[in-house]
Amino acid sequence: MIDSHAHLFEQYYGNDLTTLLQQLQETMEAVLVVGVDRKTSEEALQIAEKFDYVYAAAGIHPHKARPLNKKELAWFEQIGKEEKVVALGETGLDYFYENSPKAEQKKLCRQFLELTGEINLPLILHVRPAAGKNDAFNDIFKIIETTGRKEFDGVFHCFSGNSENAHKAIKFGFYCSFAGNLTFANDPELEKAARQIPAKRLLAETDSPYLAPQPKRGRQNRPDFVKHTVKKLAELKNLPFDKLSNRLKDNFFSLFCGKN
Ligand SMILES: [Zn+2]
Ligand SMILES: [Zn+2]
Q: Which domains does the chain have, with CATH numbers?
């Protein structure tokens, strides 16, 4: 089993973190631990260096967005060279909470899109529109179209858009990763998107410690709960669980571990 996006940090799991990481060693083939600022990006790398099945991503969450100066950009370039750092991000546009100004989120996002193009790493994007709107998706596609890059590598994590957004993301070269919200009651638009995305462009994740899938909803999430989301995806795609599971594994390794 693969969890393509989790935040396994002490600030969430406290003293249970080491036990959790040891337990997961028995059941998980890969877990991508995703940094949300420089501190957690470093923590992600430390965990990845300790555990074979853990990979790391280094980024700055849109909640904490502000443009990076040269020194900070160099820092991300540097950490991106570490063997176990397989992506930059997460970063992106969160207009639902809008914890930082949209203009700053957009600038940071553009910087990461450019940097990952230069250093040839995938980018993990977090895109969440304001309630009832498509604003964050419209803006991210505008940014993507105007970077000057022709090809992209990366993923729209915790995908929450409609099928039109999914098609656009895929057209640019991104994967779409589904999280526990897919298992919550009845989101026909999201389910339709999941049905339409080709299996070779799908990933599954937990976004631990948040968003535990049904039937674990309300509990603290953990990477092995990803199976509930994979099960739901398999139902929607009308594919056997094992077949989809293997496909998701291949997708994960080709996106994140195909790096030179
Ligand atoms: Zn996110
Ligand atoms: Zn996340």
A: 2-256 (3.20.20.140)
CB 189 within 8 A of CB 163: yes
pLDDT digits (tens, 9 = 90+) for 140-162: 999 999 998 888 999 999 999 99
- Choose among 243, 95, 127, 122: nearest CA to 193: 127
240 CA from centroid of ligand 2 (Å): 28
Nearest to 100 by CA among 56, 181, 36, 49: 36
Question: Distance, CA 90 to ligand 2 centroid (Å)?
Answer: 7
Judged by its nearest atom, the ligand closest to the C-alpha of residue 34 is 2
210 C-alpha to ligand 2 centroid (Å):
8
pLDDT tens readout for residues 191-233:
999 999 999 999 999 999 999 999 999 999 999 999 999 999 9
Say how many Å lie between the CA of residue 89 and the centre of ligand 2.
9
Query: How far apart are the C-alpha atoms of 151 and 118, rounded to whole Å?
Result: 12
- The widest CA-to-CA distance across the chain, in whole angstroms, is 48
For residue range 155-189, list pLDDT tens digits in order: 999 999 999 999 999 999 999 999 999 999 789 99
